[in-house]
Design goal:
The protein has about 220 residues and is of the alpha+beta class. About 35% of the residues lie in helices and about 25% in strands. The protein has six helices and seven strands; from the N terminus they run ααααααβββββββ. The strands form two sheets. The chain has a four-stranded antiparallel beta sheet, with no helix packed on it. Strands 1-4-5 form a three-stranded mixed beta sheet, with helices on one face. A hairpin with a 2-residue loop joins strand 2 and strand 3. Helix 1 packs parallel to helix 4 and helix 5 runs antiparallel to helix 6. The N and C termini lie far apart (about 50 Å).
């Protein structure tokens, strides 16, 4: 097995390096390379730069607005961005909720949500863990009860990374108590501006604020 990069892959690396060098804002790179705190605007600015180039979603297929790059190309891109001090592209929208929408969303949902993820319009956070339900998500207790064309959501999520900035949250919730614990769990997309949502910060020992608790009290979800 030849583990060396091909000439085409090396040429691809040169293209990536040149673009990043020319377009990554110096002040953002200085923060990353210096281990400084990044603001929401730093992440969004870099995502928009990449989107303008057509590189906003390196792991997405072209049919959904991605690059269609193979794994080697994605790895080269990640290496060059990291070496230059580019912010990490946040995975919550690009790598966690987007593939679910691609696989299970209807065309209307795909056409609405996916472009807003890749161009940096919508910031997503994750709603999985709960107090007492971390790795064992089958024990989650956040409830979603059907009421006409809506679910009514009540419960709490925790360790929600960067939820203080989020426009949307994707949540695992219990919609049924019948059968095994692993059954009756649904995946909901919830607008963070919905009435009844409260975000409470979890301040770390260094004073940083990246983690949160998210509370749901009679939140109506279409």
């Amino acid at each position: 097995m030849d583990l060396n990069f091909t000439p085409e892959e090396e040429s691809f690396r040169t293209e990536i390096r040149a673009f990043v060098d020319a377009n990554l804002p110096r002040e953002i790179a200085a923060k990353v390379l210096g281990g400084k705190h990044l603001e929401k605007d730093d992440f969004v600015a870099w995502q928009k730069i990449l989107h303008t180039k057509g590189w906003g979603a390196t792991a997405w297929p072209k049919a959904f607005g991605g690059t269609g790059w193979n794994p080697v190309q994605q790895n080269i891109f990640d290496e060059e961005c990291a070496a230059a001090g580019a912010p990490m592209q946040l995975p919550f929208g690009l790598k966690m909720v987007a593939p679910v929408i691609m696989a299970f969303g209807n065309p209307s949902q795909q056409q609405h949500f996916l472009p807003r993820i890749v161009d940096g319009t919508d910031w997503w956070c994750q709603g999985y863990s709960e107090p007492g339900s971390g790795s064992d998500l089958a024990s989650l207790k956040t409830r979603a009860e059907r009421e006409g064309d809506h679910y009514i959501v009540n419960g709490q999520k925790t360790w929600n990374t960067l939820a203080q900035h989020a426009d949307w949250i994707f949540c695992l919730v219990r919609t049924s108590t019948e059968g095994r614990q692993q059954e009756g769990i649904s995946f909901l997309l919830i607008d963070m501006k919905s009435e009844g949502i409260t975000v409470r910060p979890i301040i770390m020992l260094d004073g940083g604020h990246a983690l949160n608790e998210v509370w749901f009290e009679d939140v109506r979800v279409p």
